[in-house]
Amino acid sequence: DFCPTTMVEMANMMKQLGPQAERVQVIFITIDPARDTQELLATYVPNFDKRFLGMRGSEEATQKIVKEFKAFYQKSPGKTPDSYTMDHTAASYVFDPEGRLRLYVAYGQKSEAIAHDVKLLLQ
């Protein structure tokens, strides 16, 4: 449930940035590469904003980046093997143009607040 909500907030943030949004790249990185194929991401992610990119890596690469971001994820079994869900850290990270981490955006932060902070970084 976190992912679509966060993606909607990011899309709203991009609208609020107006022309400055052209200087921002939103990237969705899956923590479930087994289920989230590149084809699936290529159709799902741009539904929120055509500029958004979806990325996936191997299970090993996913584990490495999750550790690097000090995040968390785990598979929670469902009633059938294919009906599992993924529990994970519900936050977004904002990097400046030089690739430095500048903001940690907690789940539930509204697009207005995110846009305000991103505008400050774009100055």
Any overview of this molecule?
It is a single chain. By secondary structure, the protein is α+β, with helices and mostly antiparallel strands. It is built from four helices and six strands; from the N terminus they run αβαβαββββα. Helices cover 37% and strands 20% of the residues. The chain has a two-stranded parallel sheet with strand order 1-2. A two-stranded antiparallel sheet has the order 3-4. Helix 2 links the parallel strand 1 (27-29) and strand 2 (53-55). It starts with a helix and ends with a helix. The model has no long low-confidence stretch (mean pLDDT 94).
Average the pLDDT over all residues and give the rounded result.
Answer: 94
Care to count the β-strands? 6
Number of helices: 4
The residue fraction in helices comes out at 25-40%
Our measurement of the CA-to-CA distance between the termini, rounded to an integer number of angstroms, reads: 33 Å
Alpha-carbon Rg, integer? 15 Å
Pairing-aware structural class of the strands and helices? alpha+beta
The largest beta-sheet arranges its strands as 1-2
| Anisotropy-based shape | globular
Q: What is the ordering of alpha helices and beta strands?
A: HEHEHEEEEH
Largest sheet: number of strands, sense, barrel closure: 2 strands, parallel
Low-confidence stretches: none
Beta-strand content bin: 15-25%
